[in-house]
Amino acid sequence: MSDLDTSEKILPGTAPAEDVIFQLEGDADFDTGEMSLSIGPAHPATHGVLRVVLDMDGERIREARPVIGYMHRGFEKLAEYRDYRQIMALTNRHDWLSGFCNELGVALAVEKMMEMEVPDRAQWIRMLLAEWNRVLNHLMFIGSYALELGAITPMFYAFREREDIQFLLESATGGRLHFTYNQPGGVKIDLPKGFLRESARLVDETRSRLSDYVDLVLGNEIFQARTKGIGALPPEVALAYGVTGPTLQATGVPEDSRVTEPYLKYGEIDVRVPTGDNGDSFDRFAVLLGRVEASLEVIDQIHDHIGPGPVNTKLPKMVKAPEGFTYVRTENPLGQLGYYLHSDGSKNPWRFKMRTPSFSNVQVLPYLLEGQLMPDAVAILGSVFFVVGDVDR
Amino acid sequence: MMPLLDVSVAEGLVAQSASILTLDNFWLSALLKILLCTVMLMVVSLVGGYLEHKAMGHLQNRTGPMEAGPHGSLQLVADGIKFVQKEDIVPRAADKLVFAVAPGVALVPALLGFLVIPIGPGVWAEDLEIGLFYALAIGSIGVLGILMGGWASANKFSLIGGIRAAAQLIAYELPLILAAAAVAVQAGSLSLVDIVESQATMSIFGTPVSMWFVFPQLLGFGIFVMAALAELSRPPFDMPIADSELVFGYMTEYTGIKFAMFLLTEYGGMIFMSGLITVLYLGGWQALPGVPLPGCEAAAGISDCGVWGTLLGVGITLGKIMALVFFMVWLRVAYPRLREDQLQKISWLVLIPLSLVNIAIVAIGKVAL
């Protein structure tokens, strides 16, 4: 007999007191106090295994406590036992929706320490793929956020768009999610023939399809009623919590590493940073759509700039960073990603610390959720964009 | 005054218009009537469910079920077989009796509702004098099962779902009844068969016209459809289920055949409400306003029909029901979910005042014309 079957011990109606969750014995004893509700770790709204414990009074939230760590996979420690090329395959996994941007950060850190010259074409290719990865990531959140508000359809269409982009990236990298295409000093191999033509076609296609999301999701009355004024985040609070990315930009702060501290060739092109006014869920979603649009503009510019040339540099058999440390920050789709790399001169990093955007974004949840309604909690959880793997590492 | 009503008022409370299912043999006719209700619940609901699967699929850039039967048409049957085989899990802290009874309490009203819905000329189980009242009353019992299920599951998500369903019912029963009352005023009867027939035999200033009630009562139609969606917990008013917030609302702890009963209740409720809307506003089994069915003799060509006329009438009613089901599916595909308090606001501040205005307009029109 299975462990689940304990029905014999408890007769109907005589369940032990601790098992009775809701007890009603006359009006005087009617307990209308707070109820603790545990959302997650396996709840549809937490996409992943984030757990949020809510103290609720009816449907109103008194206090919210995010509980993280259910998906801790020890990437920082694992990285200390991998060489620099192997670390690429680790880092594109912590935020599985921005694999390329993650490994780009590692490559930049190693190159900075080794003072490596990266060929122009490799830099443009990296930017091109990083922007496509950004579009890929944002499409996922556009679909899943609508799903959280009860609109099931945008998810399927977002995946249709994603499929085309993933096919494009697969043609260059061989991967759909974990690309492992970067290496210190450039990218593994050159782009396949016809890649740029296909990429240009996809820009037009994605742009035309994006207007559907603006009309049908952003313009929907119910969507606006559910998101406008919900979970408003003041810019100073966002900065105090270290919130970055679309969540920060929605509060009106135009912070974007590609503009404020350009890496690769971002200094040579115009990067538009969309911002919001109120920092509420609606603005966060609007900024997300705006960022897709901005990324497509960047991709257009990259197409104009990219020229022929080598795509990588000859590497020694064992890549060894010289003794010392560095910190590289890049604009990941979800916000600012920082890699602190400390090397003792051997083939492995001595310490490899990640500053992931999702971790900082989740920290602000207690501030945002306090005093909100339960359905709004879902509207807020979905709009503070995070990937649980990126929180727990 | 419609001549038809004078006849019906003189009759008793029960069975004023003869159903073709009424035979000399009492048991045989009772069996036929039970069969009609069961077919409506078991077969027509599954067709509605299949329509939902396929329509949602194609609207969402996918195909929907394809494997079970031709084009996946037997998918829901396969689902039913699967549900029967599943383990029936009862949470340890659950109130076992209430937990077990709840799906039945939800399902039986959906079955009983079909008793009064006329689906063709002479094709109805019972034509009650108070048919409309009965249909609305029976329809609101179902939420009791939902509340019971939510309470007995000993799950906080279920409880919130159950409470939301109850709150929604209280808010939306009122506009639903008020909108239906306007129809009863215009038809001059609570019998659903009379309501259909009066949509073919209206008279304005003594001139007979055939007019479905959706045209004079467009406002009431809109209110009724919206309230019906809320009462059925269909998107965009599916807060009691709200899968992204409450996991699956009051159904969270249910498995196997009990879950299937709740699911069947939902599809049955959809068919029942669509049937009611068809009868109240869309002229029941009339093909088009003023177009008589072939082979029919009395009352503007919509009753006392031959075999083919009857079959055609049934087909037309079912077609209208499926069109309404498609409309509900379309809403589900197109819209996000409202919040519970926003829903309550819409009901108390917009729909109820509007439905009172609707009744006033209809009553004035009835007296003036």
The separation of the N and C termini of chain A measures 39 Å
Question: Mind telling me the CATH superfamily name of the largest domain in chain A?
Answer: Cytochrome-c3 Hydrogenase, chain B
CATH topology of the largest domain in chain A: Cytochrome-c3 Hydrogenase, chain B
What integer is the average pLDDT of chain B? 82
Radius of gyration of chain A: 23 Å
What is the count of distinct domains of chain B?
A: 1
Number of strands of chain B: 2
Helix content of chain B: 55-70%
Main attributes of the structure:
heterodimer, A: 393 residues, alpha+beta, Cytochrome-c3 Hydrogenase, chain B, 2 domains, 3-stranded antiparallel sheet, 15 helices, 8 strands, 46% helix, 12% strand, B: 369 residues, mainly alpha, two-stranded antiparallel ribbon, 11 helices, globular
Walk me through the topology.
The complex is a heterodimer of chains A (393) and B (369).
Chain A: E1 35-39, E2 51-57, E3 60-67, H1 75-79, H2 84-94, H3 99-114, H4 120-148, H5 153-173, E4 182-183, E5 186-187, H6 195-218, H7 221-227, H8 235-241, H9 246-249, H10 257-260, H11 281-305, E6 324-332, E7 335-343, E8 349-355, H12 357-363, H13 365-369, H14 374-383, H15 388-392
Antiparallel strand pairs in A: 1-2, 2-3, 4-5, 6-7, 7-8
Helix pairs in contact in A: 2-3, 3-4, 4-5, 4-11, 4-14, 5-6, 6-11
Chain B: H1 3-10, H2 26-59, H3 75-85, H4 96-113, H5 131-152, H6 156-187, H7 192-198, E1 202-204, E2 207-209, H8 218-231, H9 256-281, H10 307-334, H11 340-368
Antiparallel strand pairs in B: 1-2
